[in-house]
Design a protein that fits this description.
The chain is mostly helical and 146 residues long. The chain has one domain (17-82, 94-145). 75% of the residues lie in helices and 0% in strands. The radius of gyration is 21 Å and the shape is globular. The N and C termini lie far apart (53 Å).
Length: 146
């Protein structure tokens, strides 16, 4: 039986490979840039009217999230990774609503490059929204064809 051979080969050969870690690292590297490009592209190419812009952004974002989830599930089954979590000793709950709002606003309005490199998705969504709207405003008829 072919499947039994594959199972025994998989358990002997691939358990010591860091393929799962490499896959997760690759996803972490690609996902922020993908989100930025998808949102900015959707906003810059959307027809005039606020409803169509947000509809396009939401559809692209949900579709890409769905595809990423499928790829992640398939990858996690093909390349299993063992996780060993330790308790964080210096983490505490926010003291109140003011601290929560401050953290959210600081994340949203942080440097766009920092948001991309550190994977801060609130900042990525904000800056891709700004960039997409700016592209929409600045674009001429010739550049819209590209």
């Amino acid at each position: 039986d072919y499947w039994c051979y594959f199972r025994s080969f998989h358990s002997k050969s691939f358990n010591n490979w860091p393929t799962g870690t490499l896959f997760v690292s690759a996803l972490k590297a690609v996902a922020p840039l993908l989100v930025f490009v998808l949102v900015a592209s959707a906003l810059s190419k959307a027809k005039s009217g606020i409803a169509s812009r947000f509809k396009t952004v939401i559809i692209f974002y949900l579709f890409s999230t769905f595809i990423a989830a499928i790829v992640a599930v398939l990858g996690s089954h093909l390349f299993p990774v063992g996780m060993h979590l330790t308790a964080a000793s210096n983490v505490s709950a926010p003291s109140g609503l003011e601290e929560i709002l401050t953290n959210i606003l600081t994340t949203i309005f942080s440097n766009p490059i920092k948001s991309l490199t550190e994977g801060e998705y609130l900042g990525i969504l904000f800056w891709s929204f700004v960039f997409g709207i700016a592209l929409k405003i600045v674009a001429s008829d010739n550049t819209k064809k590209i």
